[in-house]
Amino acid sequence: MRRGALLIVLFVLARDVDAESDDASTIERQKASSSDSWRVGHASDSLSRYNGHARRLLRDAAPTRAWDAAGRFLDALDGSLADASANGCVLHEFNSLPNVETVDVSVRLDYHAMAKNGNLKRLGVMCDARSERGSGEAWCLGLERSTAFERHRKWWRRLSEAYEDGRHPYWLSEYLEFDMHANEMNPTASVFIETTPMVNRRQAEYVPALREYLEAIEETASERLYENIQAVIDAAMGDGFDTHMWAAGIMFSRSTKTASGTIDSVRVLIHFMRHTPRNGAKDEEEDGYRSEKTRQMVRLLEILNWTGDFDEFDRIDNYFLDDGGLGSVLQLDVLNRAPTASDPSIIGPRVGVEITIGVADPTKNIMPRLNSLVDDGLVAPMWWSNFTAALCEPGPPRTDASNARALLRRPCAIRRRTAADKRDLTKNDGSGFHPPLTVAVSHLKFIVQPGRSLYVKPYVTTQAPFAWCLDDKAHAEPESLPVYNQCAR
Q1: Which region is the signal sequence (predicted)?
Q2: Is residue 436 included in any domain, yes or no?
Q3: What is the H or E stretch that residue 93 is in?
């Protein structure tokens, strides 16, 4: 799962006949966003309950100022962005290990679910970025503070107007990633648009779909960049690779523009599916890699003339899991440049590897391998002990919270309903409760970049059960539209 300072302010609603109730609502929001409100929970129409659930479990995993900043930011976003109708979630990203200093947050948006609950049309067509909370459907759910909002909403408009129920044939969902800067969250966001993580052979649609997205938001990418992305895809999907194209990242919050005004890079995310060596023990004897994922990733980086540190990259081999085919992700920044004899690489020196903390076989115990993070100095012993004690229960791993029939099983997942949790889940109108939230370790991201040793970022997801589940088998057909059914509960 990805920076100017932001001062989050509570909006003063329009002075009209409802001013008294609006003032009361503002006062309640101020109380709810106070530094200690997370301890006891509170009914809210915002995403603050996602932060409260995660923080009560992981309070010692990040400094108070980082949790507070995440809470203030999420309190300013409408709860419908990730509730049970939205197929959404909130990710917390823990930075600066071995001892965490900052926390970034991401919000998942599912296009079909957004169309069904009305948010796709609201964000793409109906809302007014000048409107404030309390303005009905004119309010843009808190996302309007992003400097990228007016650009990116053109994509939501296209999905709403050109595709029935938001069903784009290739891109299915996105993550908006917000980074912490100067003790607040930068609302600009980087955007990661995704297709299904399940294996298919639809890689020929990746570049045309990316071009459609960039043209929809009226951003220009050079033909050279598109050609370089296609070259990476051709290499990654060639003979000897067990791979699948998954996502594209546009780093609005930190990318620069070239003099010509074009996007200068796109982050390409590739799933590597095979853990067991193709030739058994013979492969490991020859190159020392225990996982086929490492072997294939290194081979791809060599083909692409990567200029990074292979010794540091090799250290990741120790952490690839026998996950039953769920796959791990290689992140590459594909650059807008022409290769030369002296500098033939078209990818940046910084790469990332995402390893899902989950298995398909519930009898597999992957925790001992993860515990070696401490031995390698990637996490502080006490931090890791507290982190895993909070989320990793003994016994068979839980089925992923999204769907009762999900293939993914998570060994580090907690779903509980304490008194504080129930307050968080209480609907504002008092009519009942929102569905329970599950807090789980989603994945670890290992980063290799110039000038520093290998480092790692844990990601924690907080989510309600999904409303809509993709028919992966039907979507494997090239050019087909996605088909959704209601998820099993």
Answers
A1: 1-19
A2: yes
A3: strand 90-95
Are 97 and 378 in contact, with CB atoms under 8 Å apart? yes
Residues of the chain with pLDDT under 50: 1-34, 256-260
Alpha carbon 276 to chain centroid, angstroms: 27
Q: Determine the pLDDT at residue 261.
A: 52
Q: Which residues pair with 463 in a beta bridge?
A: 438
Q: What is the pLDDT of residue 401?
A: 86
How far apart CA 49 and CA 164 sit, in angstroms, is 32
pLDDT value, residue 253: 59
Asked if the structure places residue 61 within a domain, the reply is yes
Instruction: Provide the β-strand partners of residue 447.
Output: 352, 455
Which token pair is 144? Answer: 């309007």
The pLDDT of residue 263 is 85
* Domain-located, residue 8: no
pLDDT of residue 254: 53
According to the model, what pLDDT value does residue 416 have? 84
pLDDT, residue 335, reads: 96
Q: Distance between CA 201 and CA 231 in Å, rounded?
A: 16
What integer pLDDT is reported at residue 153 of this predicted model?
Answer: 97
Contacts of 87 (CB under 8 A, 6+ apart): 108, 110, 112, 113, 173, 402, 466, 467, 468
For residue 368, give every residue at least 6 positions away whose Cβ sits within 8 Å of its Cβ, in sequence order, or none.
none
Q: Which residue has the tokens 């648009």?
A: 193
Cβ(47)–Cβ(107) under 8 Å?
A: yes
Coil, helix or strand for 334? strand
The token pair at 147 is 């400097």
8-state DSSP, 465 = P
Query: Cβ–Cβ contacts within 10 Å for residue 16, how many?
Result: 7
- Residue 361's domain spans which residues? 19-486
Q: pLDDT at position 412, please?
A: 94
Smallest CA-to-CA distance from 73 within 153, 185, 221 is with 185
Tokens coding 103:
């926390």
- Is the dihedral angle over the CA atoms 216, 221, 222, 223 positive or is it negative? negative
Number of domains in the chain: 1
Residues facing residue 426 across a β-bridge: 433
In a domain, 162, yes or no: yes
